[in-house]
Amino acid sequence: MPTPQQPVTLTWRKSSRSAQNGACVEIAQTDRTHIRDSKNIAGGQLALPPGQWCTFLSAVKTNADHRP
After folding, report:
1. How far apart are CA 48 and CA 29, in angstroms?
2. pLDDT, tens digit (0-9, with 9 covering 90-100), for 3-38
3. Would you state the pLDDT for residue 4?
């Protein structure tokens, strides 16, 4: 019978470029990239595999380049 997996303690970090008002996201790395809202750390989080993380970053960078 399989044993339950032990919970992993995540080490969260923010970008050095994040706003000082707390309006940013934090990430933690395991075999996936975990993403959460720094204003609501008890809320939900995303866990993206490497390929989807790269796609997400690319989309964010593209949208940032096209802001008015």
Report:
1. 10
2. 567 677 899 998 777 767 767 889 999 999 999 988
3. 63
**Alpha carbon distance 23, 18 (integer Å):** 8
Instruction: State the pTM of this model.
Output: 0.72
Domain total in the chain:
1
Beta-bridge partner residues of 37: 25
* Residue 2 zone, left/alpha/beta (φ > 0; ψ -120 to 50; rest): beta
Please give the helix or strand (H or E) that residue 54 lies within, else none: helix 50-65
Q: Would residue 1 count as lying in a domain?
A: no
Round to whole Å and give the CA distance between 36 and 57: 15
Q: 42 lies in a domain?
A: yes
Rounded to an integer, what distance in angstroms lies between the CA atom of residue 64 and that of residue 56?
12
